[in-house]
Amino acid sequence: MATLGDIGVAAAFNILSAFIFFVAFAILRLQPFNDRVYFPKWYLKGLRADPTTPGAFVRKFVNLDYRSYLRFWNWMPDALRMPEPELIDHAGLDSAVYLRIYLIGLKIFVPIAFLAWGVLVPVNWTNSTLEGTKLSNVTSSNIDKLSISNVPLGSQRFWGHIVVAYAFTFWACFVLLKEYEKVASMRLQFVASERRRPDQFTVLVRNVPPDPDESVSELVEHFFLVNHPDHYLTHQVVYNANKIAKLVKKKKSLQNWLVFYKNKYSRNSSKRPFMKTGFLGLWGDKVDAIDHHESEVKKLSEEISAERERIGNNSKSIVPAGFVSFKTRWGAAVCAQTQQCRNPTIWLTEWAPEPRDVYWENLAIPYVSLTVRRLIMGVAFFFLTFFFMIPIAFVQSLASIDGLEKAAPFLKKVVEGGFFKSFVQGFLPGIVLKIFLIFLPTILMIMAKFEGFTSLSSLERRAASRYYIFNFVNVFLGSIIAGSAFEQLDSFMNQSANEIPKTIGVAIPIKATFFITYIMVDGWAGIAGEILMLKPLIIYHLKNFFLVKTEKDREEAMDPGSLGFNTGEPRIQLYFLLGFVYATVTPIILPFIIIFFGLAYVVFRHQIINVYNQEYESAAAFWPDVHGRIVTALVISQVLLIGLLSTKSFAQSTPFLIALPVLTIWFYLFCKGRYEPAFVKYPLQEAMMKDTLERAREPNINLKGYLQSAYIHPVFKASEDNEDEEENDEKWENESVIVPTKRQSRRSTPAPSRVSGASSPSLPDVQEHPQS
Amino acid sequence: MATLGDIGVAAAFNILSAFIFFVAFAILRLQPFNDRVYFPKWYLKGLRADPTTPGAFVRKFVNLDYRSYLRFWNWMPDALRMPEPELIDHAGLDSAVYLRIYLIGLKIFVPIAFLAWGVLVPVNWTNSTLEGTKLSNVTSSNIDKLSISNVPLGSQRFWGHIVVAYAFTFWACFVLLKEYEKVASMRLQFVASERRRPDQFTVLVRNVPPDPDESVSELVEHFFLVNHPDHYLTHQVVYNANKIAKLVKKKKSLQNWLVFYKNKYSRNSSKRPFMKTGFLGLWGDKVDAIDHHESEVKKLSEEISAERERIGNNSKSIVPAGFVSFKTRWGAAVCAQTQQCRNPTIWLTEWAPEPRDVYWENLAIPYVSLTVRRLIMGVAFFFLTFFFMIPIAFVQSLASIDGLEKAAPFLKKVVEGGFFKSFVQGFLPGIVLKIFLIFLPTILMIMAKFEGFTSLSSLERRAASRYYIFNFVNVFLGSIIAGSAFEQLDSFMNQSANEIPKTIGVAIPIKATFFITYIMVDGWAGIAGEILMLKPLIIYHLKNFFLVKTEKDREEAMDPGSLGFNTGEPRIQLYFLLGFVYATVTPIILPFIIIFFGLAYVVFRHQIINVYNQEYESAAAFWPDVHGRIVTALVISQVLLIGLLSTKSFAQSTPFLIALPVLTIWFYLFCKGRYEPAFVKYPLQEAMMKDTLERAREPNINLKGYLQSAYIHPVFKASEDNEDEEENDEKWENESVIVPTKRQSRRSTPAPSRVSGASSPSLPDVQEHPQS
């Protein structure tokens, strides 16, 4: 076991690294040539331009004003100053609500910490169990004196812990309830107060059934004209643009190289740059790099336009999905919430995500394939989660030096050195875990993509919940059981599954110090490192040097990044879990967690205001997940407390404690019924209100023109220059239409579909190749 | 353990009682004076009248035609003869689909039985494990020779069981999939082909928020006029008629007594009947019974009409719920499937149940109260389930005579008698369980009512799923573990929760004989007793003698009963569970189960055709539950097989078997996504199709008149004679309405609400007391 001294060393080390990161950040951000790295959000919003101080040339790169260095902590109050409504306006509701997760952490744990230190620490401290057992072979430290381990078996003092556990639960549920209410009303207000957005009128329809007589476009149109006659406005088909997207990406990269060589040539115009055409430029024919790239780019451009034409002409490149727009929000709300067809696996409708939120690759997956994919990914995730534990367990057990010494006595000399020992025990376990976890989010995102979610936000939510489960099994349980398994091998062997709460419960107090160091590494130094943005800084300067020629290039060289819900949120959740579990057991951990929440809140508020660029806006659709996981952590902590107390010869507490998880789960169900609909449905009353208001304000709005090309695959959007499709829209909205058809049985009436002519797919470049 | 001989005695006994029941039924049903007991369905349909053979007086009561007795088995082919479409027409879709559950049992288990007897029985039989162990203290019988117990530990023969388990699972899933598909399409066809029904146009709205300025009726009208302007047609408020319903019930009972005394007087007119007014007529003043009852009935009639008036005048007797009708099925489908209001706990809409399916008492329960009630009932059900086990376990353990002898050697003399022993072991355990279970459904129905479901069908579904869980824990697990606990006390003590599959798995083969006798008692003799209808027979004749004066009285004396989904379905599910669990373990049980399914199918088909009167028609809404429970049984059987095999020194099979529950659960989820929406939603396409058809066929239909009084509490319906509310409906449907309001802010425009005047609550008797 680590002693207080070990923790002190680790704390000093982590505080020092956090401090170094902050100082480095404070200096770097003041340099004008880093401006685009540390304030990209403002550039993207067009509110900040490159510093054009007229002074000396050096001033353009280095800040020589010593006064600004004196105020280098100022970013913290600056970050806190912006009020929430302005923040929502500036960075979107998602970001603002994301920050509230940290605030909840503070709201829950600050009072809990006071209560725990006021009640539990004295209760634990005034025993002498551990002093008695110190002589035996159980290792303990003075931190354990503050923990529940110090209370003797069967002591009546455990009633204190039970009462406090109730208080914690009620307080946490109270905060969660208030917060859910607040976020739900923020979401509704945000959606209501918002300006018109295409996704308010649009529904994504998937699994359009194949039809021998009609194209997808005609089929969609006819179906919705028949079944939503008063509300259907227009629709857009989805093209399978995966190939063209690949080509565009390749062209982009080649253009970058072209710019690179041109820059090189312009700097040193004596020598034309040459390159080899083979793999990585290592072998092959030697050619003039600029000419080669120019011809390659030209070839690709031709390929792209050929592919574009092919997509336009070939009806097979239209996937069986589409975006259907309605005349009113009411109509869209109705269509999104109802079942369209007898067969519930075709004509699936759901709210269309924001245009930038759409994950285009997944729109075409048929229903049966989706369910099979879910099964496969479920099984794959199970294996990923449980077989990943083996290496972690091994490294973790090494990190427990006492165990290591016992296992390999010949290492004793090496590790016995005081500082080295503290270093290994205080720092290494956290780092090991961290490295393991760096590659995980990418894998989980790929898995979520394979499962067929249709929006980036849902992909991230899925990846986040998987990441949370992974964290729980591997970081939390893995650290507790595996580490302890090395120490308590005898007592762990041959134990059965229902003993798990007991087994973990017993191990929890022992692993408190490990988690304290983990919090310091990941939660203190890690968060401080976040603000330094080392990777974007380096990449920006490399790009700036090699690739940037115009202002637009510089714009593209910025990499503001985004919030990363799929990695960030499960990470916070781990702190909630630790906080709840240790609140009753080893309350000394709470201040460390509170510092994490406070620090992270400031840092991420700064990042959101100045750096991150939102990828999408889901209007806080992730909140039910966040709420659910915090409640899960609460329930886990309660079950573990039951397990722990039943090993303390205090099993008579179980009937008193079993009510806690029951009530908490009921609380979860209550909140789910009460608030979750605000996040998945769109009340008709709201829709009707907005429609009525809008009709009164702008009676002549050309809605069809507005919606016609809202959902176009980004690769087509880039070349969206000839917008000639906005014709005869005005009369459209109020005329009643006769549904034309092309079915075999009516082939005798071959009049071309007037309606489908008007609303045929609006891919700009293929307008001259009508499909029918 | 029971031997083959014991089972033979039990089988003979049960077959004999079943035979006696059938013969008694065959004789009784031919007697004309029992006609209304055994063919009430036909009377209710008006297709059969009292036999009026002109012959001798005795012929009216006793059938003297000897030829009809010769054909007394004929009811069986008769029952099978009616084709399914005619059955649906005759008795409703619920009944027809309910019968399919028995058919599924046959479809699943007949092939499985052949496979099991062809493969597993030889595999098990050709071992000699049990002969070797017979000398030790393990008791076994020759039935066990056919079961998995006879295969030696670690034998490679278990691969046979694993392969067969896969075959069983795939076959069962295949049958279930086909059946789900069939039932879903039957339901949709039923709904589509049906004539117009009020519930197709109507939505039940609950939790109407209180409003200081407007009555519930006005509030509902305004809300739906605003939010469904093109579709809203009319609405009906719900009166709190609990008190009046009680009064009507009391009056009915008094009238019965009045008739009783009048009959008595008319038979013996020399003496006026007297009665005492005190408790149960035991003491108090002696009064003339006829006069007394006449005055009481009159008093009650006055009270009822006063109460009726009070309800009409008092706005507080209107509960915050209502039935809202729409002009089209499309409008109703939209409203039922969408969220209406920001706050998802008010303005809750759902499909209105059929008028006769509504459970009126529960319409007014507010949302928060509902969630609390669910919690309370959840906890109560937990206690009911787990504390009920104690008495069962005790009686069960007595029924195992071998165990009893060991426990109380002094009883040896008493129970050693051959036939007595067989009787006790073969018959008693089943009877004990049966008595325990008779009172349960009533309790579960009361619990479901307390939970606040709004239709009889959902009440029954809820009670059924609770009953199933109860059966599983107490009948299935309770019998297996408790019975075994007496025999294997040593091995059972101190075992942990994850050992449960093993523990049960081990006990399963041992309890095979118990379940065989249970099947014979409950499934053979019990089903045969069902057809005899002893209770309705006796009650009918009592009523007929004492109360019946007119033809209408005789009509009311009939008690056809109904299918009783809440008790019948869980009972069938127990057989599915036993079948799946024992199919791989002790296949000898399968023929007994198949006989049950066959017999029950014939008996219930007869009952449905001739006896039961449908209480409601839910269009087979219960099918997802049935399907889910059969799949649950399948998963349980797979888990138990894993447990059993891991105790057979064959734990290497676990990886091969673990895929089975995973695939089965996936199959369940697939079916849920694929077919369940057909049972909970109403596709807009269907609605639109029916609307269009209907508009073409009957363009001038007075829909409002049709819907105006569809949802009236049955106590008001009785006196529905003055139907004067059908006025100015014609012009209603096509005029556009301006929404009137009575809010404070507009008090300066006091014109009475024209619309609410027209559609004010349509309680017939209070028409002359308008509310506004």
How would you sum up this structure, described in words?
The structure is a homodimer of 772-residue chains. Chain A has 772 residues and is mainly alpha-helical. Chain A has two domains: 4-195 and 367-680, no CATH class; 198-353, no CATH class. Helix content of chain A is 64%, strand content 4%. The first copy, chain A, contains 34 helices and six strands. In chain A, the strands form two sheets. The first copy, chain A, has a four-stranded antiparallel beta sheet. A two-stranded antiparallel ribbon of chain A has the order 3-4. In chain A, helix 6 runs parallel beside helix 26, helix 8 (158-193) packs antiparallel against helix 28 and helix 11 (242-267) runs antiparallel to helix 12 (289-313). The longest helix of chain A has 42 residues, at 84-125. Chain A is globular and about 85 Å long. Chain A starts with a helix and ends in a 14-residue tail after the last helix. Residues 134-140, 483-494, 720-737 and 745-772 of chain A have low confidence and may be disordered. Chain A binds chain B through residues 188, 223, 226-228, 230, 333-334, 337-342, 344-345, 347, 367-368, 371, 374-375, 378-379, 496-499, 662, 666, 669-670, 673-678, 681-686, 688, and chain B through 188, 223, 226-228, 230, 333-334, 337-342, 344-345, 347, 367, 371, 374-375, 378-379, 496-499, 662, 666, 669-670, 673-678, 681-686, 688.
